Amino acid sequence: MRNSDHRPANVALVFGGSRGIGAAAVERLAADGYGVAFTYVSRADKANLLVAAVEAAGGQALAIQADSAHPEAIRQAVSQAVDRFGTLSVLVVNAGLLRMGTIDEVSLQDLDLMLNVNVRAVYLAIQAASPHLQDGARVITIGSNVAVRTGMPGASVYQLTKTAVAGLVKGVALDLAPRGITVNNIQPGPTNTDMNAGAIDMLAERSPLKRVAQPQEIAGLISYLARDEARYVTGSSITIDGGLTL
Ligand SMILES: NC(=O)c1ccc[n+]([C@@H]2O[C@H](COP(=O)([O-])OP(=O)(O)OC[C@H]3O[C@@H](n4cnc5c(N)ncnc54)[C@H](OP(=O)(O)O)[C@@H]3O)[C@@H](O)[C@H]2O)c1
Description:
Blueprint: E1 11-15, H1 20-31, E2 35-40, H2 44-56, E3 61-65, H3 71-85, E4 88-93, H4 108-129, E5 133-142, H5 156-176, E6 182-188, H6 200-206, H7 215-226, E7 237-240
Helix pairs in contact: 1-2, 1-7, 3-4, 4-5
The chain binds NADP nicotinamide-adenine-dinucleotide phosphate (NAP).
Residues 16-22, 39-43, 46, 67-69, 94-98, 117, 142, 144, 188, 190-191, 193-196 line the site of NADP nicotinamide-adenine-dinucleotide phosphate.
Protein backbone atom coordinates (compact mmCIF):
# COMPACT_ATOMS: atom_id res chain seq x y z
CA MET A 1 0.00 0.00 0.00
CA ARG A 2 1.36 3.45 -0.86
CA ASN A 3 1.65 5.99 1.96
CA SER A 4 -0.91 8.20 0.18
CA ASP A 5 -3.51 5.40 0.19
CA HIS A 6 -4.27 5.36 3.89
CA ARG A 7 -6.09 8.06 5.85
CA PRO A 8 -3.94 9.63 8.56
CA ALA A 9 -5.30 9.58 12.13
CA ASN A 10 -4.42 13.23 12.62
CA VAL A 11 -5.37 15.84 10.05
CA ALA A 12 -4.46 19.52 9.77
CA LEU A 13 -5.82 22.19 7.45
CA VAL A 14 -3.68 25.29 6.95
CA PHE A 15 -5.16 28.32 5.21
CA GLY A 16 -2.34 30.07 3.36
CA GLY A 17 0.23 27.28 3.41
CA SER A 18 2.25 27.69 0.23
CA ARG A 19 4.90 30.14 1.48
CA GLY A 20 6.43 31.69 4.56
CA ILE A 21 5.03 30.89 8.00
CA GLY A 22 2.22 28.77 6.52
CA ALA A 23 4.64 26.59 4.54
CA ALA A 24 6.78 26.09 7.65
CA ALA A 25 3.60 25.06 9.51
CA VAL A 26 2.72 22.55 6.79
CA GLU A 27 6.19 20.99 6.93
CA ARG A 28 6.25 20.90 10.74
CA LEU A 29 2.76 19.41 11.11
CA ALA A 30 3.55 16.82 8.43
CA ALA A 31 6.74 15.93 10.31
CA ASP A 32 4.63 15.66 13.48
CA GLY A 33 2.54 13.00 11.71
CA TYR A 34 -0.44 14.95 10.42
CA GLY A 35 -1.94 14.59 6.98
CA VAL A 36 -1.92 18.23 5.92
CA ALA A 37 -4.21 20.04 3.50
CA PHE A 38 -3.33 23.64 2.76
CA THR A 39 -4.61 26.47 0.62
CA TYR A 40 -2.86 28.97 -1.61
CA VAL A 41 -4.19 31.79 -3.73
CA SER A 42 -1.83 32.16 -6.70
CA ARG A 43 1.49 30.38 -6.18
CA ALA A 44 0.66 26.91 -7.51
CA ASP A 45 4.38 26.45 -8.19
CA LYS A 46 5.29 26.85 -4.52
CA ALA A 47 2.29 24.77 -3.41
CA ASN A 48 3.23 21.86 -5.67
CA LEU A 49 6.87 21.95 -4.56
CA LEU A 50 5.71 21.82 -0.94
CA VAL A 51 3.47 18.80 -1.56
CA ALA A 52 6.41 17.05 -3.23
CA ALA A 53 8.71 17.88 -0.30
CA VAL A 54 6.21 16.54 2.27
CA GLU A 55 5.65 13.36 0.25
CA ALA A 56 9.41 12.86 -0.24
CA ALA A 57 9.74 12.96 3.56
CA GLY A 58 7.09 10.24 3.86
CA GLY A 59 4.12 12.46 4.69
CA GLN A 60 0.83 13.33 3.04
CA ALA A 61 -0.19 16.78 1.77
CA LEU A 62 -2.91 18.25 -0.42
CA ALA A 63 -2.69 21.69 -2.04
CA ILE A 64 -6.01 23.49 -2.62
CA GLN A 65 -6.39 26.69 -4.64
CA ALA A 66 -8.77 28.92 -2.65
CA ASP A 67 -8.83 32.70 -2.38
CA SER A 68 -9.68 33.54 1.23
CA ALA A 69 -11.29 36.78 0.03
CA HIS A 70 -14.19 34.64 -1.24
CA PRO A 71 -16.46 32.90 1.31
CA GLU A 72 -17.45 30.08 -1.04
CA ALA A 73 -13.79 29.28 -1.75
CA ILE A 74 -13.21 28.90 1.99
CA ARG A 75 -16.12 26.45 2.31
CA GLN A 76 -14.92 24.49 -0.73
CA ALA A 77 -11.42 24.23 0.71
CA VAL A 78 -12.75 22.72 3.92
CA SER A 79 -14.83 20.23 1.91
CA GLN A 80 -11.86 19.18 -0.20
CA ALA A 81 -9.65 18.69 2.85
CA VAL A 82 -12.28 16.59 4.63
CA ASP A 83 -13.02 14.55 1.48
CA ARG A 84 -9.35 13.63 1.18
CA PHE A 85 -8.31 13.13 4.80
CA GLY A 86 -11.42 12.98 7.03
CA THR A 87 -12.29 15.09 10.08
CA LEU A 88 -9.90 17.77 11.27
CA SER A 89 -7.69 17.73 14.37
CA VAL A 90 -5.95 21.07 13.72
CA LEU A 91 -6.99 24.20 11.85
CA VAL A 92 -4.38 26.91 11.22
CA VAL A 93 -5.68 30.15 9.75
CA ASN A 94 -2.56 31.88 8.50
CA ALA A 95 -3.46 33.49 5.15
CA GLY A 96 -2.98 37.22 5.39
CA LEU A 97 -1.60 40.23 3.62
CA LEU A 98 0.03 43.54 4.43
CA ARG A 99 -0.50 46.74 2.45
CA MET A 100 1.21 49.70 4.07
CA GLY A 101 -0.23 53.22 3.87
CA THR A 102 -1.04 56.12 6.15
CA ILE A 103 -4.63 57.22 6.80
CA ASP A 104 -4.29 59.65 3.84
CA GLU A 105 -3.09 56.96 1.45
CA VAL A 106 -5.02 53.71 1.91
CA SER A 107 -7.53 53.01 -0.87
CA LEU A 108 -10.99 51.55 -0.26
CA GLN A 109 -9.88 48.52 -2.30
CA ASP A 110 -6.89 47.81 -0.03
CA LEU A 111 -8.98 48.45 3.09
CA ASP A 112 -11.61 45.94 1.94
CA LEU A 113 -9.04 43.35 0.86
CA MET A 114 -7.21 43.41 4.20
CA LEU A 115 -10.46 43.29 6.17
CA ASN A 116 -11.76 40.41 4.04
CA VAL A 117 -8.62 38.24 4.07
CA ASN A 118 -7.14 39.09 7.48
CA VAL A 119 -10.40 39.21 9.47
CA ARG A 120 -13.57 37.99 7.72
CA ALA A 121 -11.83 34.94 6.26
CA VAL A 122 -10.48 33.96 9.68
CA TYR A 123 -13.99 33.89 11.09
CA LEU A 124 -15.41 32.12 8.03
CA ALA A 125 -12.65 29.49 8.01
CA ILE A 126 -13.35 28.56 11.62
CA GLN A 127 -17.11 28.62 10.96
CA ALA A 128 -16.77 26.35 7.90
CA ALA A 129 -14.40 23.96 9.66
CA SER A 130 -16.36 23.79 12.92
CA PRO A 131 -18.71 20.91 11.95
CA HIS A 132 -15.64 18.90 10.87
CA LEU A 133 -13.46 19.56 13.92
CA GLN A 134 -12.96 16.57 16.21
CA ASP A 135 -13.70 17.02 19.90
CA GLY A 136 -10.48 18.31 21.46
CA ALA A 137 -9.31 19.81 18.16
CA ARG A 138 -7.03 22.87 17.94
CA VAL A 139 -7.74 26.13 16.15
CA ILE A 140 -4.73 28.41 15.71
CA THR A 141 -4.87 31.83 14.08
CA ILE A 142 -1.85 33.86 13.03
CA GLY A 143 -2.22 37.43 14.18
CA SER A 144 0.73 39.77 14.66
CA ASN A 145 2.64 41.57 17.39
CA VAL A 146 1.38 44.79 15.79
CA ALA A 147 -1.79 44.11 17.79
CA VAL A 148 0.37 45.07 20.78
CA ARG A 149 2.34 47.96 19.23
CA THR A 150 3.62 48.97 15.80
CA GLY A 151 5.83 51.95 16.56
CA MET A 152 5.61 53.02 12.94
CA PRO A 153 3.14 54.96 10.78
CA GLY A 154 1.41 53.37 7.80
CA ALA A 155 0.29 50.14 9.47
CA SER A 156 -3.08 51.20 10.91
CA VAL A 157 -5.26 48.92 8.77
CA TYR A 158 -2.99 45.92 9.32
CA GLN A 159 -2.98 46.70 13.06
CA LEU A 160 -6.78 46.95 12.98
CA THR A 161 -7.08 43.52 11.36
CA LYS A 162 -4.66 41.77 13.70
CA THR A 163 -6.21 43.35 16.79
CA ALA A 164 -9.59 42.10 15.54
CA VAL A 165 -8.22 38.56 15.34
CA ALA A 166 -6.96 38.76 18.95
CA GLY A 167 -10.49 39.68 20.01
CA LEU A 168 -12.12 37.09 17.79
CA VAL A 169 -10.27 34.15 19.34
CA LYS A 170 -11.51 35.03 22.83
CA GLY A 171 -15.15 34.73 21.80
CA VAL A 172 -14.69 31.69 19.59
CA ALA A 173 -12.71 29.95 22.34
CA LEU A 174 -15.80 30.22 24.56
CA ASP A 175 -18.07 29.04 21.72
CA LEU A 176 -16.01 25.89 21.12
CA ALA A 177 -14.91 25.14 24.71
CA PRO A 178 -17.85 22.75 25.34
CA ARG A 179 -16.32 20.45 22.69
CA GLY A 180 -12.84 20.64 24.28
CA ILE A 181 -11.60 22.59 21.26
CA THR A 182 -8.97 25.22 22.02
CA VAL A 183 -8.67 28.45 20.03
CA ASN A 184 -5.46 30.46 20.21
CA ASN A 185 -3.77 33.28 18.34
CA ILE A 186 -0.03 33.44 17.63
CA GLN A 187 1.35 36.97 17.27
CA PRO A 188 4.70 36.82 15.45
CA GLY A 189 7.06 39.72 15.18
CA PRO A 190 9.02 40.37 11.99
CA THR A 191 9.72 37.04 10.33
CA ASN A 192 11.94 36.12 7.40
CA THR A 193 9.33 35.70 4.65
CA ASP A 194 8.41 37.26 1.32
CA MET A 195 6.13 39.66 3.21
CA ASN A 196 9.25 41.43 4.48
CA ALA A 197 11.37 41.19 1.35
CA GLY A 198 13.82 44.08 1.31
CA ALA A 199 13.18 45.07 4.93
CA ILE A 200 14.88 42.26 6.86
CA ASP A 201 18.03 44.21 7.81
CA MET A 202 16.04 47.22 9.01
CA LEU A 203 13.67 44.99 11.00
CA ALA A 204 16.57 43.05 12.54
CA GLU A 205 18.20 46.28 13.66
CA ARG A 206 15.03 47.29 15.59
CA SER A 207 14.91 43.94 17.41
CA PRO A 208 16.46 43.46 20.90
CA LEU A 209 17.87 40.15 19.62
CA LYS A 210 19.15 41.89 16.46
CA ARG A 211 17.47 39.43 14.12
CA VAL A 212 14.05 38.55 12.75
CA ALA A 213 12.32 35.21 13.39
CA GLN A 214 12.64 32.24 11.09
CA PRO A 215 9.29 30.79 9.94
CA GLN A 216 10.27 27.47 11.57
CA GLU A 217 10.34 29.19 14.98
CA ILE A 218 6.71 30.24 14.54
CA ALA A 219 5.86 26.73 13.32
CA GLY A 220 7.37 25.36 16.53
CA LEU A 221 4.79 27.28 18.55
CA ILE A 222 2.03 26.01 16.26
CA SER A 223 3.29 22.47 16.89
CA TYR A 224 3.20 23.06 20.66
CA LEU A 225 -0.38 24.40 20.60
CA ALA A 226 -1.43 21.35 18.58
CA ARG A 227 -0.01 18.92 21.13
CA ASP A 228 -1.96 17.27 23.95
CA GLU A 229 0.09 19.08 26.61
CA ALA A 230 -1.35 22.43 25.41
CA ARG A 231 -4.96 21.37 26.00
CA TYR A 232 -5.50 23.92 28.82
CA VAL A 233 -4.35 26.91 26.72
CA THR A 234 -7.30 28.63 25.07
CA GLY A 235 -8.44 32.11 24.10
CA SER A 236 -4.84 33.30 24.32
CA SER A 237 -2.84 35.57 22.07
CA ILE A 238 0.79 34.51 22.38
CA THR A 239 3.40 36.97 21.16
CA ILE A 240 6.64 35.58 19.71
CA ASP A 241 8.72 38.56 18.64
CA GLY A 242 12.15 38.42 20.25
CA GLY A 243 11.13 41.06 22.78
CA LEU A 244 10.29 43.72 20.18
CA THR A 245 7.11 44.91 21.89
CA LEU A 246 8.42 44.80 25.47
N1 LIG B 1 6.21 37.85 8.03
C1 LIG B 1 6.01 38.53 9.15
O1 LIG B 1 6.88 39.29 9.59
C2 LIG B 1 4.73 38.40 9.90
C3 LIG B 1 4.68 38.95 11.19
C4 LIG B 1 3.51 38.83 11.91
C5 LIG B 1 2.42 38.20 11.36
N2 LIG B 1 2.49 37.69 10.10
C6 LIG B 1 1.29 37.03 9.57
O2 LIG B 1 1.63 35.71 9.28
C7 LIG B 1 0.84 35.24 8.19
C8 LIG B 1 1.75 34.69 7.10
O3 LIG B 1 2.67 35.71 6.74
P1 LIG B 1 3.93 35.39 5.82
O4 LIG B 1 4.95 36.43 6.17
O5 LIG B 1 4.29 33.98 5.87
O6 LIG B 1 3.33 35.79 4.40
P2 LIG B 1 3.79 35.40 2.90
O7 LIG B 1 5.19 34.92 2.90
O8 LIG B 1 3.40 36.59 2.10
O9 LIG B 1 2.82 34.16 2.56
C9 LIG B 1 1.45 34.37 2.58
C10 LIG B 1 0.74 33.05 2.44
O10 LIG B 1 -0.68 33.29 2.52
C11 LIG B 1 -1.27 32.96 1.28
N3 LIG B 1 -2.31 33.92 0.96
C12 LIG B 1 -2.20 35.26 0.86
N4 LIG B 1 -3.38 35.80 0.50
C13 LIG B 1 -4.25 34.77 0.39
C14 LIG B 1 -5.61 34.66 0.02
N5 LIG B 1 -6.32 35.74 -0.34
N6 LIG B 1 -6.18 33.43 0.00
C15 LIG B 1 -5.46 32.33 0.34
N7 LIG B 1 -4.18 32.36 0.67
C16 LIG B 1 -3.57 33.57 0.70
C17 LIG B 1 -0.15 32.98 0.26
O11 LIG B 1 -0.51 32.18 -0.87
P3 LIG B 1 0.27 32.34 -2.31
O12 LIG B 1 1.62 31.69 -2.11
O13 LIG B 1 -0.58 31.62 -3.28
O14 LIG B 1 0.37 33.81 -2.56
C18 LIG B 1 1.00 32.42 1.09
O15 LIG B 1 0.91 31.02 1.22
C19 LIG B 1 0.00 36.44 7.74
O16 LIG B 1 -1.29 36.38 8.36
C20 LIG B 1 0.78 37.62 8.29
O17 LIG B 1 -0.04 38.73 8.49
C21 LIG B 1 3.62 37.77 9.35
